[in-house]
Predict the 3D structure of the following.
Amino acid sequence: MEGGTPHVLFVCGSLRARSLNRQAGERARELLAGRAETRWLDYADVPYMNQDAEFPAPDAVRRVRDEVMAADAVWVFSPEYNHGIPGVLKNLIDWLSRPLEPGGAETALRGRPVAVTCAAGGSRGRYCAADLAEVLATARAELVDTARALVALDRRAYTTDELALTPAEQAALAAQADVLMTRLGSA
Ligand SMILES: Cc1cc2nc3c(=O)[nH]c(=O)nc-3n(C[C@H](O)[C@H](O)[C@H](O)COP(=O)(O)O)c2cc1C
């Protein structure tokens, strides 16, 4: 934590440019402005998990691990694909869950605070959020928020690709940002 300012790494479960989850993440970055340094993780080049290629890890994997380990916390924004975690995000988490060295205990995710927000359709992303909680707990990450902010995307959002948060959703996101900052000792 340089100069007392925590670093929060944002991860989007959608790779598309107009991602509504990325837009929700941008709102969160605004909420953290002045309280944390934030940046997005670019992980589109991470290859599929293949245990034959784990040691030494591919360059892209080493880079994303370094970025995660340099962060004080990670905040995931993700859509829900077929009531689950999008494959690209699950693949990233699988790499981050694995030991840095053969037989070692240290991983990029172990003990790292992680917050989760999902923006999706009718389910409001609750299946994906529950999946992420299970997967991240299995990877020994520290899930920060127990009341995860879930955003409902409607037909207007789907047709315009413009995110609009209800006052309740905006408040939930702000509360989640506050919980994360409190966890990082920086209110
Ligand atoms: C493969 C696929 C599966 C999807 N499955 C679900 C789903 O199970 N529940 C849901 O609410 N929305 C589902 N959607 C719709 C997404 O919520 C919607 O496309 C959303 O905008 C994607 O997030 P993004 O805008 O951040 O890319 C699915 C979309 C895709 C591409």
Summary: The longest helix spans residues 167-183.
